[in-house]
Predict the structure.
Amino acid sequence: MAITPTFSARPRVLVVGGGYVGLYTAFNLQKKIAKFGGIVTLVDPLPYMTYQPFLPEVAGGNIEARHAVVSHRKHLKETELIQGSVTSIDHENRTAVIAPVDGGAPFELPYHDVVMAAGAVTRTFPIKGLAESGIGLKTIEEAVALRNQVLSLIEQASTATDPAVRARALTFVVVGGGFAGIETIAELEDMARAAVKLNNRVEQSELRFVLVEAMGRIMPEVTEKQALWVVDHLRSRGMEVLLNTSLDNAEGKGIKLINLPDKSVAQEFDADTLIWTAGVMANPMVRSTDFPIEPRGRVSVNANLQITGEFGVIPNAWAAGDVAAVPDVTGGLPDGTCVPNAQHALRQAKRLAKNLWASRFNKPMKGYKHKNLGAVAGFGEWKGVAKIMGIQLKGPLAWVAHRGYHGLAMPTVERKFRVIMDWFVAMFAGRDLAQLEFLDNPRKAFVTAATPAPKPAAKPAEVPAAPASEAPAAKPAEAKVEKKEEATAK
Ligand SMILES: Cc1cc2nc3c(=O)[nH]c(=O)nc-3n(C[C@H](O)[C@H](O)[C@H](O)COP(=O)(O)OP(=O)(O)OC[C@H]3O[C@@H](n4cnc5c(N)ncnc54)[C@H](O)[C@@H]3O)c2cc1C
């Protein structure tokens, strides 16, 4: 019998998305709203908030994947949680349509206030083969898959005898030289080198890491001098950093790179791994609402984080984080809005919750103002770069600053503790290099066990034995492996 879910009839603050903004807004409002007879409802297809700055370290095996996410159910005990996607909003009639994550029938949910917190999605370009061959780094699932893929390809290459197959498996391409791309290539390279150390059938020199950046420099968040240092640092570790270069084609595992701006071919080679970290854009779900959208696809808000339109403030509508164009009175992007980052998202959420609450009692609201503190990035163990309140750091000091900052910024004491313990254990035991196989087909072993073996076929008529000259020789792969092991033993 189908069970129809019943949701609260209390006046609702509907939070669309449970990332940084959603988690902190709901957390700061849930008790107050409940006390006055209302309810906070958070809708997200995921049952957790993802601490995205940790994705490169999850991919690199330094942080356990579950520790980089925060369970909504555990930390939002007084919030009504719905696992699903908001597919459209009719603010004029104060209703949202929700598609449950289990594929059930979409339903309408009424609300009093709405908080748009659906973040950003990976921004791609129409490059042939990209959708089929590429992977992003925006979700915990992608980070887990990348880690397993890199480790798995090293294993596969170690038993392959065809040099082209080995080269393709051991070539890793990252497109996008922003923070996410640089941290990702650096963490993966560190992990791959540690994995190859344990595998005497693969040489370190066979690993190839290629960073592709369309601009003339990487990491706009740090100074030009620091960015140059990062390029030198990556190159000193054997990584190829290609500036003013763009991905032109990625069909069938082939990578074609072109020089910008003359569009001449820069390089063509094969790679099994293509990681796309070339930027994000506001979640396109905002286009299915009746809120006005600014040129970059975000909802416009004023400094109080209220959604605004042609005729001023739209009552009971709020937004913050990557999905919103929030004015930055301290600078920010060239259009005068905040850079989409976690630093802003977290602080905006806290301000939004206070302002929404103040608006209930017609109390004065405060405008959002935060001067960016800078940026910290980790490039694998004891390596990093940072610019904190104008102070430039690099190497081990920057790496310590990176860990210190993110260790403290990770939401909830419980999660902080788990991540710090991961780092502590890794310091003594090294990176966790255990790869998990068959995650996309976990029933494989059971299906094999539960499927009856086919009945043996009737005994074939006896075939005369082949003469010795026609007998199959030892498999070349095995022969090569034995030979390499002998060499290693010497
Ligand atoms: C790899 C990586 C590294 C980063 N490193 C840093 C860093 O070092 N420092 C820094 O400051 N920032 C960093 N950022 C940026 C930072 O993570 C984002 O700016 C921040 O997460 C934005 O918060 P948000 O709440 O707006 O969006 P998000 O945290 O992305 O949350 C959006 C939520 O909305 C949900 N959602 C999406 N569509 C719907 C829908 N239709 N209905 C309901 N829910 C929906 C999503 O599932 C998600 O949970 C990094 C980002 C990435 C990808």
